């Protein structure tokens, strides 16, 4: 006999369980047998389907739809796929189940009025919107994309395939879309679009809509896949209706405002398993079954389940071989969280004990519903010697899944990823599943299985194996961690193992159980040779019972709680099946387990005790007289016992406390708190203080707790780097000192010192010292500044009709001088150069002639150290240092969950970032210097689709475009004093940039019928079209004050071009970009975001070549881009708000004091323009 000692440790712990994941078999019926029509096979094919009743989509009704092979349903004939794939939002109305370039599979569709389909549709709608009255659907459109492949994938029969479904529920006054994504149905996440892979897309879009006032604009939209492949992957795991992989949206109604998603928040992925496939004889219901005249057992109201296992921790690790409960000799009034949520507490003379409620069984600390199957998952690790080999086989974290049908005692166990020779050698060790079978063995009259006596916490030591259980979690799921150590006889690869049935006698004492048995198995080699092997089995089980329970007499049935244990019982194990699947490296065990009297060769004849009752898998068998019995659904299920369905407890209001939501589980429910909070014993969601955990933040920073999260804060004068370190801020990069002062950076601060010849504090108000007499230019400037109208205005700026000469740092005349209407060149004495004057009718602005047309001068190109690129990617703003532009250096700067951030802008004065997002829509701001304040929303009303954003850091103004409302608007930086500058002759305004020096704004309009780039003063005057010829889709726009170049990125012409807006000279930087969106100028380089490449691309303006590609780790669309620039040394008339009471808006050579659109009665515009 081969003797060995193995260590087998079974850890029974918590499994976080959410909505059950969808399987392919859970889809609505489809195919020929369901009455479906089938789309003609081929790429980019579609078919029309007439509807009665009509589909309500957004605010319109449609009597026909078009089903496309590209994973979408459209309300009109879709154009060729090249016109919409990869170009979200599309120009036509559609419902994208999983849109991409798909082919090879089959697309089935039908209009169905079958009562079963309508009932299931009604149930899903009611789950998603439990507060609404139930409505019976008038029809349902079922569209199934079955085994679709990505275009260009290899082999018609090989490769990854996707299967998914869209059901359109047609109600009397609205329509609801149900999207179904099976867990095994999504095998690829991208398809080709425009020559590059692009994440599949799911969502709803109204397309282009027409308005008599605004003309053609992009309508409303709602996308589930706004974050690329990761959001597609989440479709199978999440839900908004309580069923994993199922998403429900109201897409249209008679009185429609917006797409309404289901109200049940997404759950974590369900970690469960179904029984492994085994061959079993069909079993029919016993004719002796009493068709219960009794009322089905009504489930008692269950207490909410806590998903945070540490909140109700009842276990205490005393050693590596023993894990016991620690009972306190207290009363029920003092006991908190000691009993199972499905148990009641009873006081005894010396203390209190827990007893499972009626319909449940266990030891009171752990209780599960009678008749309900038990699912287990976990991992197997170990170090095993095979035969005489001196080298052990080591393995770790092999997945184990188990499933027990408790109403017939059948247990199934599967261990995956176990390769030869270990896999075959483990086949005789059916004891891996034996402990689970004993715990939930089918109970004969007057006898109790292991779980009924001990719950899920025990310690077992045996020859051949040693096992430990650590309890059942609040979701009634077990997690089994197994550790093996010792020696096993080898089993040849390809051999079969047959384990003989056996009986095992259990002796019960106080907190101690012993048992022994003889085990036999035979190994049949591939050659046919048979080897019989046997071994002896002895084991000792220790556990901790409630010492306060009176008496130790045998109990009369399950669920009676502590103090009712038998003295001796026999476990009978038969129908043992073991198999090793070499192709899948999988071990399977199956066995039937019964616990009853000693020396009983056959079970009681009543089908409840033999397992031949035929009750539903979620029902308990109740024996009656003789051979009769009745089936009663387990707690949490309803039905006649032969067929039981889950009860959705969450339909009953008030089960969970405030700020938490109810999540239905199979047979129960639980209360779930938002991330960053946990459920207290009182059922309230309380914030988790993450800062109590050490080491969250780096050195020199401290942790600041926030509601639902935390942040790391640096001391004043420093900022948090992408690596999480506090680094000193070089304030001198933002040029805070006067231009006649030098800046010296210090640790956490800076110092300004006046240059020789000047005195003052080095910041703003400086006067000439006696070290150098005032130059001619400085004297002329001083005289001009003194010639003002007096009063309030003279404190800040001269009247704009007075010409003020410009002097450089040395007091010399700048070579270009400008008045309000004209610009000219001067010599060193300030005298005008003959013939250099240009009027406003000849040129739109001051002349700054470059030496070689619009190309930047070689001196332009310095990039300050520590400068960052900022770009938007779905709900995030990412940052990457310009000195380290690899994909690993990309770090999140700001996370705006469930939002689509479009434009990004940076304020160099206050070290803050601004952004627009269109899903709200809103405009927000966050300080990078004062992280304690956190992000805040500046503008959230009267917005529809804010896509462009720009700042004037000198005048402290905020400008934006809204392509939904077709306007250009301005406000102060805090979002107050809003004023619409333009709302006419605009179709799709997108990008906007500022030129603070000359008080200009530039914006692009990608109107497909007439794209253009326009320019005006910041006060809205002198609006002109700057570029109109040879444009396609001008998306990105940037202005470089150093080179005075305006550059744009065009997704239609696929070019990046630049122009001097004063000389109107235009040149091409690149003519082979793919699909640019955002654009920013940094020194001699241009950086643009590309939708086709999902990347940030750098261009050198001098060499006109591509210099780098930054591909973020998150594969999703990138939008606006900006940079953490230093403050330029520029000034304009509105630097101190120009003395205006409300808005001070600069213009060329002056400024305007204007009122916001919503006046408060205190604003007056005296002639508007101050000249």
UniProtKB/TrEMBL annotation:
tRNA-binding in keyword set: no
Per-repeat ranges for LDL-receptor class B: 911-955, 956-998, 999-1043
Localization terms from the record: Secreted, Extracellular space, Extracellular matrix, Basement membrane
Protein name, UniProt field: Uncharacterized protein
UniProt GO BP: canonical Wnt signaling pathway; cell-matrix adhesion; epithelial cell differentiation
GO molecular function, a single term: Wnt-protein binding
Source organism (scientific name): Periophthalmus magnuspinnatus
UniProt xrefs under Gene3D superfamilies: Green fluorescent protein, Laminin, Thyroglobulin type-1, TolB, C-terminal domain
Signal peptide: 1-21
Organism lineage string: Eukaryota, Metazoa, Chordata, Craniata, Vertebrata
Domain EGF-like: 604-645, 646-686, 687-727, 728-761
Region ranges (Disordered): 266-305
Cellular compartments per GO CC: basement membrane; plasma membrane
InterPro entries attached to this UniProt entry: 6-blade_b-propeller_TolB-like, Cueball_EGF_LRP_Nidogen, EGF, EGF-like_Ca-bd_dom, EGF-type_Asp/Asn_hydroxyl_site, EGF_Ca-bd_CS, G2_nidogen/fibulin_G2F, GFP
Ranges where the Thyroglobulin type-1 domain occurs: 774-852
Keyword Metal-binding part of the UniProt annotation: no
């Amino acid at each position: 006999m081969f003797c060995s000692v193995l260590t087998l440790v079974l850890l029974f712990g918590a499994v976080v369980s959410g909505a059950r994941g969808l399987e392919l078999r859970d889809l609505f019926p489809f195919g020929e047998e369901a009455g479906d029509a089938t789309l003609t096979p081929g790429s980019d094919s579609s078919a029309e389907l007439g509807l009665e009743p009509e589909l309500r989509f957004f605010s319109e009704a449609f009597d026909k739809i078009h089903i496309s092979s590209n994973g979408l349903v459209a309300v009109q004939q879709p154009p060729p796929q090249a016109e919409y794939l990869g170009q979200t939002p599309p120009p036509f109305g559609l419902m994208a189940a999983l849109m991409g370039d798909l082919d090879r599979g089959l697309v089935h569709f039908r209009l169905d009025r079958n009562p079963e389909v309508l009932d299931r549709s009604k149930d899903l709608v009611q789950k998603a919107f439990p507060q609404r009255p139930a409505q019976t659907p008038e029809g349902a459109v079922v569209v199934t994309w079955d085994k679709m492949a990505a275009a260009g994938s290899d082999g018609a029969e090989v490769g990854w395939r996707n299967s998914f479904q869209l059901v359109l529920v047609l109600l009397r006054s609205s329509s609801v879309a149900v999207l179904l994504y099976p867990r095994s149905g999504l095998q690829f996440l991208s398809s080709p679009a425009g020559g590059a892979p692009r994440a599949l897309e799911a969502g709803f879009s109204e397309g282009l809509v027409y308005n008599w006032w605004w003309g053609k604009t992009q309508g409303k939209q709602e996308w589930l896949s706004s974050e690329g492949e990761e959001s597609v992957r989440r479709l199978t795991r999440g839900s908004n209706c309580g069923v994993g992989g199922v998403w429900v949206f109201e897409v249209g109604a008679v009185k429609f405002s917006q797409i309404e998603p289901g109200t049940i928040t997404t759950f974590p992925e369900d970690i469960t398993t179904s029984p492994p496939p085994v061959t079993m004889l069909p079993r029919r219901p016993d004719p002796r079954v009493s068709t219960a005249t009794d009322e089905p057992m009504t489930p008692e109201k269950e207490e909410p389940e806590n998903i945070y296992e540490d909140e109700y921790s009842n276990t205490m690790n005393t050693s590596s071989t023993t894990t016991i409960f620690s009972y306190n000799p207290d009363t029920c009034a003092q006991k908190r969280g000691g009993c199972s949520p499905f148990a009641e507490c009873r006081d005894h003379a010396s203390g209190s004990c827990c007893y499972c409620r009626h319909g449940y069984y266990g030891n009171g600390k752990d209780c599960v519903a009678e008749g309900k199957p038990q699912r287990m998952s976990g991992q197997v690790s170990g170090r095993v010697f095979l035969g005489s080999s001196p080298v052990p086989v080591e393995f770790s974290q092999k997945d184990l899944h188990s499933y027990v049908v408790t109403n017939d005692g059948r247990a199934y166990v599967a261990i995956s990823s176990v390769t030869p020779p270990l896999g075959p050698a483990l086949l005789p060790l059916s004891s891996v599943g034996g402990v689970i079978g004993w715990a939930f063995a089918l109970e004969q009259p007057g006898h109790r299985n292991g779980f009924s006596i001990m719950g899920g916490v025990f310690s077992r030591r045996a020859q051949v194996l040693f096992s430990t259980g650590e309890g059942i979690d609040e979701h009634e799921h077990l997690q089994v961690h197994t550790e093996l150590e010792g020696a096993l006889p080898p089993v040849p690869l390809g051999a079969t193992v047959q384990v003989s049935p056996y009986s095992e006698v259990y002796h019960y004492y106080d907190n101690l159980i012993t048992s022994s048995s003889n085990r036999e198995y035979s190994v049949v080699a591939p050659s046919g040779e048979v080897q019989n092997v046997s071994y002896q089995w002895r084991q000792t089980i220790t556990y901790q019972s409630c010492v306060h329970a009176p008496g130790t007499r045998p109990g009369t049935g399950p669920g009676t709680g502590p103090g009712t244990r038998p003295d001796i019982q026999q476990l009978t194990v038969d129908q043992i099946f073991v198999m090793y699947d070499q192709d899948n490296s999988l071990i399977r065990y199956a066995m039937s387990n019964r616990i009853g009297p000693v020396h009983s060769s056959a079970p009681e004849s009543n089908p409840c005790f033999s397992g031949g009752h035929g009750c539903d898998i979620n029902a308990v068998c109740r024996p009656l007289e003789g051979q009769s019995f009745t089936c009663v659904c387990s707690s949490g299920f309803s039905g006649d016992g032969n067929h039981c369905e889950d009860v959705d407890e969450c339909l009953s209001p008030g089960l969970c406390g405030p700020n938490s939501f109810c999540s239905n589980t199979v047979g129960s429910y639980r209360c779930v708190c938002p991330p960053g909070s946990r459920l207290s014993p009182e059922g309230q969601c309380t914030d988790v203080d993450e800062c109590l955990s050490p080491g969250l933040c780096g050195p020199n920073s401290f942790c600041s707790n926030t509601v639902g999260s935390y942040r790391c804060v640096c001391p004043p004068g420093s900022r948090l780097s992408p690596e999480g370190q506090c680094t000193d801020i070089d304030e001198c990069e933002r040029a805070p000192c006067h231009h006649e002062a030098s800046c010296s950076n210090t640790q956490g601060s800076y110092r300004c010192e006046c240059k020789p010849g000047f005195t003052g504090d080095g910041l703003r108000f400086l006067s000439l010292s006696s070290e150098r007499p005032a130059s001619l230019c400085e004297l002329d400037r001083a005289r001009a500044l003194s010639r003002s109208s007096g009063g309030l205005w003279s404190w800040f700026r001269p009247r704009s009709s007075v010409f003020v000469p410009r002097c450089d740092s040395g007091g010399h005349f700048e070579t270009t001088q400008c008045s309000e209407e004209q610009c000219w060149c001067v010599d060193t004495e300030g005298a005008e150069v003959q013939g250099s004057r240009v009027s406003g009718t000849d040129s739109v602005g001051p002349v700054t002639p470059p030496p070689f047309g619009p190309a930047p001068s070689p001196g332009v190109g310095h990039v300050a150290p520590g400068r960052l690129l900022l770009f938007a990617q779905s709900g995030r703003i990412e940052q990457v240092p310009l000195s380290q532009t690899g994909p690993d250096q990309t770090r999140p700067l700001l996370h705006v969950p469930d939002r689509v951030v479009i434009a990004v802008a940076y304020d160099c004065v206050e070290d803050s970032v601004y952004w627009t997002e269109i899903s709200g829509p809103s405009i927000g701001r966050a300080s990078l210097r004062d992280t304690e304040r956190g992000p805040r929303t500046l503008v959230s009303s009267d917005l529809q689709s804010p896509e462009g954003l720009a700042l004037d850091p000198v005048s402290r103004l905020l400008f934006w475009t809204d392509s939904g409302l077709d306007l250009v608007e301005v406000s102060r930086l805090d979002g107050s004093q809003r004023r619409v500058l333009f709302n006419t002759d605009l179709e799709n305004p997108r990008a906007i940039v500022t030129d603070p020096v000359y008080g200009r704004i530039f914006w692009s309009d990608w109107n497909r019928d007439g794209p253009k780039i326009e320019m005006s003063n910041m006060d809205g005057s002198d609006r002109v079209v700057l570029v109109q010829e040879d444009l396609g889709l001008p998306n990105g726009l940037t202005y470089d004050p150093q080179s005075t170049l305006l550059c744009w990125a065009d997704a239609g012409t696929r070019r990046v071009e630049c122009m001097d807006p004063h000389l109107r000279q235009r040149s091409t930087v690149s003519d082979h970009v793919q699909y640019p969106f955002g654009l920013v100028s940094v020194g001699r380089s241009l950086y643009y975001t590309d939708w086709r490449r999902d990347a940030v691309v750098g261009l050198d303006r001098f060499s006109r070549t591509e210099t780098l590609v930054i591909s973020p780790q998150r594969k999703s669309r990138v939008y606006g881009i900006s940079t953490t620039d230093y403050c330029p040394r520029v000034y304009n008339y509105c630097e101190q708000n120009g003395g205006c009471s409300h808005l001070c808006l600069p213009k060329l050579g002056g400024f305007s004091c204007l009122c916001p659109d919503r006046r408060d009665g205190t604003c007056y515009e005296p002639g508007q323009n101050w000249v």
